[in-house]
Each structure stands twice: as C-alpha cells, then as structure tokens.
Amino acid sequence: MTPYPRTFSHIGISVTDLDKAVEFYTQVLGWYLIMKPTEITEDDSAIGQMCTDVFGAGWERFRIAHLSTGDRIGVELFEFNNAVQREDNFEYWKSGVFHFCVQDPDVEGLAARIVEAGGKQRMPVREYYPGEKPYRMVYMEDPFGNILEIYSHSYELTYSTGAY
C-alpha cells in the first residue's frame, strides 16, 4: 500500500523570551495567537506527566504559547527554565531541523521588518530563475537565533519545473 502525503500539523520552536517571541511572530509574521503564554510545571497532572515522558525527569517548568499561521500550521513556542541562546544556531551540517520557511510576495519588505524587530538577514535576496521567473528567497534569523527562510512563491511553483 502506497502511503498518502500527511499534512503538516505544527512545529515547536525554543526561544529565550516567550513574551518577545509572541510579539515578534504575531506582529512581524502576522501569526495568530491561539493560546496565550502559559506555565507548565513538572507535576502529576496529565500535561506534567506527558512532558516528563518527552523531556525526562528534572525539567521543572517551562512556558509555552500556541500560534497558528495563515494556512493553519501550528507553532508552539517554548521558553524552558534555563533557556540559553546558542552562539551558532546555523550548524546545517548536523542532523535535525536547521530552518523553516514562510512565504510572502514582498520578500524584501518582510526581511526589512524582521531586521527592524531585532533579527538578521543572513544573505542578499536571490532569484531562483533570474530573468525567467520572479521567484525570490532569502535566509533570515529571528531575534532568538532561529533560522527562517522567506520564499516569494509557493514551494510547488518554485520547484515544479525542476530545481535550479
């Protein structure tokens, strides 16, 4: 039996300041806040036990907020008890997620808003098919060190005629 393509439900992002992250992602990216920042503690509650299953014993507490993108993808923002921002969050050669991508037809405008909000632009805006198609992209960094990419067009349009 051939598997069918699953839909994407949500992603969890760790940050060092949950309140600032909620402000950034709602005001700069326009995501919806669907559950305000909430503290979860290591205890015998259902959520406490579930988190101990995930993190192991000794996690003590964390704060979490839930957001949603315009296309209904969930985003969990976590601020752990001893949150530390990595010095180099772009170790792309190591396994694991190294970025996520959002789509905006105004790549340059969103990049500028991210920088104004304390993020970084990691490269110049580039065209995928210069002179052929108006597809643009850029790698950015949010104010918390997480890497995000901006595409001007959908993933399907960008790659449907072959890559590069």
Structure report:
With 164 residues, the protein is of the alpha+beta class. The chain folds into two domains: 8-84, Roll (2,3-Dihydroxybiphenyl 1,2-Dioxygenase, domain 1); 86-164, 2,3-Dihydroxybiphenyl 1,2-Dioxygenase, domain 1 (Roll). It is built from four helices and nine strands. The chain has helices at 18-27, 46-55, 107-116, 155-159, and strands at 10-14, 32-41, 61-68, 74-80, 100-103, 120-121, 126-127, 136-141, 147-151. Strands 5, 6, 7, 8 and 9 form a five-stranded mixed beta sheet that branches. The protein has a four-stranded mixed beta sheet with strand order 1-4-3-2, with helices on one face. It starts with 9 loop residues before the first strand and ends in a 5-residue tail after the last helix. The mean pLDDT is 93. One of its GO terms (molecular function) is lyase activity.
Give the structure's gist in a few sentences:
This is Lactoylglutathione lyase family protein. By secondary structure, the chain is an alpha+beta fold.
